[in-house]
Design goal:
The complex is a heterodimer of chains A (231) and B (220). Chain A is built from 4 helices and 16 strands. Chain A is an alpha+beta fold.
Chain lengths: 231, 220
């Protein structure tokens, strides 16, 4: 039921409550109903009742979208704000006070090179993206903020979406072997931490092996790979 | 086609333009050349221009008046480590692949034939240099790594770049700081580089031949 589309193709999607997901754009012409075109190359998918449509594609370049969680690296400080590299075309801006419980006197102590887990609060194609380190509704940290220690692994965007899926096998499989912490950003970066360096290397190798770009190993393949490692 | 500078009226001109844009990686900023960019520009210049890989005299059309000016532009699309080797390989293969329009000089008249009238002519190359980079690590028990990935390059203590051709002729040896090496080690590394250069040469020749086999057009 999935067809391959190229950017610029018109998609015939009709529903009363139509919701367009990533990769689809609605263009409106004056006087007539707007028509929907695809902006990415990939498989066109829709939900069972045809109300939600989206395009499944893979790439390594991140395009910021609002309310997505990303892993960023601080590259510079500009006044009270921090410039953070999230892998997008422009460096993102993070306000120095955009943390839980931060006041002018009580700021988090970030340095150039710190790794952060943040949420994209503002993303437009012509502006620099903006980040916040707290949850939108509860205004509490909820896991956002500085990530200390650990190691940053790069992967494709599809892999980071798979890692965020609670039913995916990889992280629970690794977690059953040794304790680990992981923070997955939708920008193709995963921060991992474990007590032993060899465990960290094992996690990073497994992520690269399961990545659809790097072979797409399945569960039994990963078990074999772990068997060859000295952990 | 341009007028040559008066001090070298019999040679063509080659300029190489390589700028790493932020498209290659978010580490590079536009306008401000990073260290790697400066090294890359200098090495490209040495390996492709100063080693006389392209025969500049064959680019001369009329002595003192008209010569071909070749302009090579390198766009880096993605940085996965070792951009230098990749850029040198791309530049050399581009010159080998390129075909220029054929020119006929009768007395003072110069006629340039369009590629659709007469088959374009390859550039005359003296030799084909390849650049090979080895990364050395602070822990001396780790052997050097050829063609480092991004992570290996970041963690390395020093890089040694060797440019040579398949005929065992060294063009450039560049080592800017890093781990101290003794002469035996460098000779060993050059031997490895020779083997790799021969392999690369074979691959390049095969692919270029395949490509040209597919480009024969018969004019009826």
């Amino acid at each position: 039921m999935s067809e391959l589309v190229l950017p610029g193709e018109q998609i015939h999607a009709q529903h009363v409550n139509l919701k367009l997901g990533p990769g689809l754009l609605q263009l409106s012409n004056v006087g007539q109903d707007g028509f929907i075109i695809s902006t990415r190359a990939g498989e066109l998918k829709h939900s069972a009742n045809n109300s939600k449509w989206w395009i499944e594609s893979n790439s390594r370049r991140y395009i910021p979208a609002s309310q997505e969680s990303v892993v960023g690296v601080v590259i510079a400080r500009s006044g009270e704000n921090w410039r953070v590299d999230i892998g997008s075309a422009h460096a993102a801006n993070l306000d120095g006070l955009a943390f839980e419980g931060a006041t002018k006197r009580n700021r988090p102590n970030l340095k150039v090179g710190s790794v952060l887990y943040a949420r994209v609060s503002l993303a437009h194609k012509d502006m620099e993206p903006e980040l916040e380190c707290f949850d939108a509704q509860t205004r509490k940290a909820e896991g956002f903020g500085e990530l200390k220690g650990g190691f940053l692994v790069r992967c494709s965007l599809k892999m980071s979406r798979l890692l965020l899926d609670p039913t995916h096998f990889l992280l629970p499989l690794l977690g059953s072997r040794f304790p680990l912490e992981a923070a997955t950003g939708l920008n193709g970066r995963v921060w991992v931490n474990a007590k032993d360096t060899r465990h960290i290397i094992a996690i990073s190798r497994c992520i690269e092996a399961v990545d659809p770009d790097g072979g797409g190993l399945d569960e039994s393949g990963v078990k074999k790979l772990l068997g060859t490692m000295d952990i | 086609m341009v007028k040559p500078p008066p001090e070298r009226p019999l040679e063509g001109l080659i300029t190489i333009h390589s700028e790493i844009s932020p498209m290659a990686s978010t580490e590079y900023e536009p306008g401000r050349p990073s260290d790697e960019e400066v090294t890359m520009t200098r090495m490209l210049d040495k390996v492709i221009r100063r080693s006389d890989a392209v025969d500049k005299e064959s680019l001369c059309i009329q002595a003192g008046q008209r010569v071909w000016h070749l302009r090579l532009t390198i766009h880096c699309l993605a940085d996965a480590g070792n951009l230098l080797d990749c850029a040198c390989l791309a530049g050399i293969v581009a010159f080998k692949h390129f075909r220029r329009p054929e020119v006929e000089v009768v007395g003072d008249e110069v006629t340039i034939h369009h590629p659709s009238e007469r088959a374009p002519v390859p550039l005359s190359m003296h030799h084909t240099p390849f650049c090979l980079t080895f990364a050395y690590f602070p822990d001396t028990s780790t052997p050097p790594v050829l063609d480092p990935t991004h992570l290996e390059q970041r963690l390395s203590a020093g890089l040694l770049s060797v440019a040579l051709n398949a005929q065992r002729e060294l063009c450039v040896v560049q080592k800017a700081g890093g781990v101290p090496l003794d002469p035996d080690e460098i000779l060993r590394v050059v031997d490895v580089a020779v083997i790799k250069a021969k392999e690369l040469d074979k691959i390049v020749e095969e692919r270029l031949k395949e490509d040209f086999a597919g480009r024969n057009i018969e004019v009826q």
